[in-house]
Design goal:
- The chain is about 30% helix and about 20% strand.
- With about 425 residues, the chain is α/β, with parallel strands linked by helices.
- It folds into 2 domains: about 30-165 and about 345-420, FAD/NAD(P)-binding domain, CATH 3.50.50.60; about 170-345, 3-Layer(bba) Sandwich (FAD/NAD(P)-binding domain), CATH 3.50.50.60.
- The strands form 7 sheets. A 5-stranded parallel sheet has the order 4-3-2-8-23, with helices on one face. A 5-stranded parallel sheet has the order 10-21-11-12-17, covered by helices on one side. It has a 4-stranded mixed sheet with strand order 1-7-6-5, with no helix packed on it.
- Helix 2 (about 40-50) runs parallel beside helix 11 (about 390-420) and helix 6 packs antiparallel against helix 7 (about 255-270).
- The radius of gyration is 24 Å and the shape is globular.
- Bound molecules: flavin-adenine dinucleotide (FAD).
- Flavin-adenine dinucleotide binds near residues 79 and 166.
- Its cofactor is FAD.
- It is an enzyme of class 1 (oxidoreductase).
- Pfam families: FMO-like.
Length: about 425
């Protein structure tokens, strides 16, 4: 449904839809409102569409999947094999490689939006959403574009899909203001070609930090990676299968601790002792750690080889920055030309969703109930894509949410049909 056209019509013909003069327009939406036009928002809108339920997707950026299109580096590929990353109802094209490139993934998402005719309202940032118990509806407030045009949407259902990576985490470091070179978050890093010949300190050793180091190395940069405490590095493939796929398969037969032991044994055999390179492993195994803290193991795509050959240096935590570089906690002082912060992202749900502390934690902006039970709140509130299980978790949530809303939608439609088809109504 083209919401802007419908809105225009309502503005002309119906005083209730555009009830207030001036700044704050108010629009009632018959279907659910989905906040966020990333993979999760698209997945839920598609599952709803398949059931005949229209939805309104609100997206602050001017494109779908803004994380992938605007905030990721050029060399990015899906970290997991494509079969674990496809959205509901539409597989990846068979011609795609096992690990599609970022450009292929974005192409797939664009085709997905076209196929299900999902047309988000771009450039509309949700700044507030709260349940109005008097009318029994969610009130969703947005701000649009530079003119700061404000709107309010009303709906029975609200689906949060703003992602676990909505805002960059930029920690404060002593002396950062004194550092003369650029300090940028990975969300602004595109390619190593602008760092040719430069000494770059990469702070953070997750998948992004490791891949940025590899990219810098491949572009004749001189990266140093900061490993503050510990990290699990696993080969991306083991025994000719993806490590992720193998782990999923093993988990159907064995307890998580046993699978962890097998993974670590194979990793030791394939990669050697990573602690000797300055990359000690956490006390808990990779899968146990993931399920308890959400911390994802690094799937190595070649960075470890560069560390072994000396192309990438490893250092402990940064104590403070200096004018020309950094001092590390082991007392070493080194010079750098630039700093890349691979320090991750966080959810922004607590900034816009009001009075829902029992569903979403204020601390990390994620549902309080652990997977797989964090998708449904009270009074028509849902959450998609906050499972720490990537696109697979988002797809699972999306299907459940659409199924759940369908029950209420059908009941609501029956009521409307009964109302519009009663003899008195017909006679009028
Ligand atoms: C570098 C990187 C690589 C990854 N690789 C993989 C992988 O290989 N496999 C995998 O399964 N997962 C991977 N992930 C995890 C990733 O989070 C998911 O792939 C996916 O992007 C999550 O989709 P999402 O829609 O939940 O969140 P996002 O992609 O973050 O989309 C959320 C959308 O909501 C919008 N938004 C936020 N706040 C507002 C607001 N207030 N109002 C309106 N709109 C708003 C944002 O602009 C954004 O477009 C990766 C993540 C990163 C950072």
């Amino acid at each position: 449904m083209d919401w802007s056209r419908e809105e225009e019509c309502k503005r002309t013909h119906d005083p209730f839809f555009y009830s207030r003069k001036g700044a704050d327009a108010c629009v009632w939406i018959p279907g659910p409102i989905v906040v966020g036009g990333g993979p999760s928002g698209l997945a839920v809108a598609a599952c709803l569409k398949e059931k005949g339920i229209p939805s309104l997707v609100l997206e602050r950026a001017n494109c779908i999947a803004s994380l992938w299109q605007l905030k990721t580096y050029d060399r990015l590929h899906l970290h997991l094999p494509k079969k674990f990353c496809e959205l509901p109802l539409m597989p990846f094209p068979a011609s795609f490689p096992t690990y599609p490139t970022k450009q292929q993934f974005v192409g797939y998402l664009e085709a997905y939006a076209r196929r299900f005719d999902i047309r988000p309202r771009f450039g509309e940032t949700v700044v507030g959403a709260e349940y109005d118990g008097v009318v029994g509806l969610w009130r969703v407030k947005t701000v649009e574009g530079k003119e700061d045009r404000r709107r309010e949407y009303l709906s029975r259902w609200l689906v949060a899909a703003t992602g676990e990576n909505a805002e960059a985490v930029v920690p404060e470091f002593d002396g950062a203001a004194a550092f003369k070179g650029p300090i940028l978050h990975t969300s602004l890093y595109k390619s190593g070609d602008v760092f040719q010949g430069k000494r770059v300190l990469v702070v953070g050793c997750g998948n992004s930090g490791m891949e940025v180091c590899l990219d810098l190395c491949n572009n004749n940069g001189h990266p140093t990676i900061v490993v503050r405490d510990s990290v699990h590095i696993l080969p991306r493939e083991m025994l000719g299968r993806s490590t992720f796929g193998l782990s999923m398969w093993l988990l159907t037969w064995l307890p998580v601790q046993a699978v962890d032991r097998l993974l670590l044994l194979a990793a030791r055999f394939i990669l050697g002792n990573t602690a000797k390179l300055g990359l000690p492993r956490p006390r808990l195994g990779p899968l146990q750690l993931k399920s308890l803290t959400g911390k994802t193991p690094v799937l190595d795509v070649g960075t470890l080889g560069k560390i072994k050959s000396g192309g990438i240096k490893v250092r402990p935590a940064v104590k403070s920055f200096t004018e020309r570089g950094a001092e590390f906690v082991d007392g070493r002082l080194e010079e750098f030309d630039a700093v890349v912060l691979a320090t991750g992202y966080k959810s922004n749900v607590p900034c816009w969703l009001k009075d829902q502390d029992e569903f979403f934690s204020k601390k990390d902006g994620l549902p309080r109930r652990p997977f797989p039970n964090g998708w449904k709140g009270e009074r028509g509130l849902y959450a998609v894509g906050y499972t720490k299980r990537g696109l697979m978790g988002a797809s699972l949530d999306a299907r459940r949410i659409a199924q759940d809303i369908e029950q209420y939608w059908k009941a609501e439609m029956k009521k409307i049909m009964a109302f519009t088809c009663t003899p008195t109504r017909q006679a009028q």
